[in-house]
TrEMBL record:
Pfam families listed in its UniProt record: Enolase_C, Enolase_N
Keyword hit for Magnesium: yes
UniProt EC number: 4.2.1.11
Binding annotation for Mg(2+): D232, E273, D300
Annotated metabolic or biological route of this protein: Carbohydrate degradation; glycolysis; pyruvate from D-glyceraldehyde 3-phosphate: step 4/5
Protein name: Enolase
BP terms from Gene Ontology: glycolytic process
Organism, scientific name: Haloferax marinisediminis
Gene name of the encoded protein: eno
Catalytic machinery residues: E196, K325
GO molecular function: magnesium ion binding; phosphopyruvate hydratase activity
Note accompanying the cofactor annotation: Binds a second Mg(2+) ion via substrate during catalysis. Mg(2+) is required for catalysis and for stabilizing the dimer.
């Protein structure tokens, strides 16, 4: 029933106005799935290769589509993803593009779910999924590669850890975002928005910490449940010539570790992503050793959703959490392998969007399917609310 009968690929717009790859997968019994590849700006050095969409589409039509159509069952995700890997023939999807691969992989999963009449999270995660929901990490203030002339730290993320439901968590983050805007106004600081819809004011990181603390605590008082915050430092983007650049100032690796450890304690941070350069496993391990008992130290550019890099990290205790971005590795099977390796080693897997997104909602289902403790998918703005609203629908069982 789930035999694939057609795979079509096209260029569509992403949230930055760039073209990206969208895939439609049809099965013999009329199952249909559609998915689009997201795209990063602060991409990790070791990510799978994103090709220009026109090239990725042409290569996938030539190499992948003939291996899928009439050959593979959409209901068998491992078979779909193995066909994509075989069609590509490289380690990093440089032949057909991780953008074509991930779009097809996710579209096939949706087509498989459609045939079974099951919601995607259940098709991917099994019948017992759907009772636990991830806490959304909401990007409230940011800069780095996502906004010019704003903070050095890429993302200040609200984390409504005490929210009684996913819906209340989603609305809490929106309130923190709105409160941060009021505080910026009170301080006379104008703020545009960055790629993910976070405020991108020209303030120092120190001031952003203060604003976050105030916004989070005001909304916590108003709503009556615990809200904390966290960071994506995206430190690889700051690391040049052996030091971390904060505007005109620099920090050595030891100073960076001290700084992050101090911020964890001063602000009771619940989550810190990419605090150090993507090649610095030892630095990650030292920081995790210092503060890993009270916060999540998460590897994004460090691990790039790749089981080999994750295993290296596990071997040295480099983090206690991994960020999962399916397009960093190219297929859902590879992303699941990374989640499973993390969980077998007592690490949390956090599911994430990219800074360039579409209205695709696959990651909301992936987070529920994998029982993720957190999902990072923005706070406001259509391509972010698409995922957040999908989480609310899943919780409401109305998908
Ligand atoms: C979402 C992120 O940004 P990008 O997609 O630009 O890598 C991130 O770094 O976690
Ligand atoms: Mg990151």
């Amino acid at each position: 029933m789930t035999r694939i009968t057609s795979v079509s690929l096209r260029r569509v717009l992403d949230s930055r106005g760039n073209p990206t790859v969208e895939a439609d997968v049809l099965t013999e019994s009329g199952g249909f799935g559609r998915a689009a590849a997201p795209s990063g700006a602060s991409t990790g050095e070791y990510e799978a290769i994103e090709l220009p969409p026109t090239e990725a589409i042409a290569a996938a039509r030539r190499h992948a589509v003939p291996r899928l159509v009439d050959e593979v069952y959409a209901g068998d995700q491992r078979e779909v993803d193995a066909a994509l890997r075989a069609a590509d023939g490289t380690e990093n999807f440089s032949e057909i593009g991780a953008n074509s691969a991930v779009a097809i992989s996710m579209a096939a999963a949706k087509a498989g779910a459609d045939v079974l009449g099951a919601p995607l999270y259940q098709h991917l995660g099994g019948a017992f999924r759907g009772d636990n929901f991830p806490t959304p990490l909401g990007n409230v203030i940011g800069g780095g590669e996502h906004a010019k002339e704003a903070t050095n730290i890429q993302e200040f993320l609200a984390a409504p850890v005490g929210a009684p439901s996913v819906s209340e968590a989603v609305f809490a983050n929106a309130k923190v975002h709105a409160r941060a805007s009021e505080i910026l106004d009170e301080r006379g600081v104008p703020a545009a928005k960055g790629d993910e819809g976070a405020w991108a004011p020209a303030v120092s990181d120190a001031e952003a910490f203060e604003i976050m603390e105030e916004a989070v605590s005001d909304v916590e008082d108003e709503l009556g449940f615990e809200i904390r915050f966290g960071l994506d430092i995206a430190a690889s983007e700051m690391f040049e010539d052996g030091v971390y650049h904060y505007g005109d100032e620099t920090k050595t690796t030891d100073e960076q570790i001290d700084y992050v450890a101090e911020m964890v304690d001063e602000y009771d941070l619940v989550y810190v992503e990419d605090p150090l350069d993507e090649n610095d496993y030892e630095g990650f391990a030292e920081l995790t050793d210092r503060v890993g008992d009270r916060t999540l130290i998460c590897g994004d550019d460090l691990f790039v959703t790749n089981v080999d890099r994750l295993q290296e990290g596990i071997d040295v205790g480099a983090a206690n959490s991994i960020l999962i971005k399916p397009n960093q590795i190219g297929t859902l099977s590879d992303a699941f392998d990374a989640v499973e390796l993390a969980s077998r080693n007592g690490m949390d897997a956090v599911i994430s969007h990219r800074s360039g997104e579409t209205e695709d909602t696959t990651i909301a289902h992936l987070a529920v399917a994998t029982d993720a403790p957190f999902i990072k998918t923005g706070t406001v703005q259509g391509e972010r609310t698409a995922k957040l609203n999908e989480l609310i629908r899943i919780a409401d069982d109305a998908v």
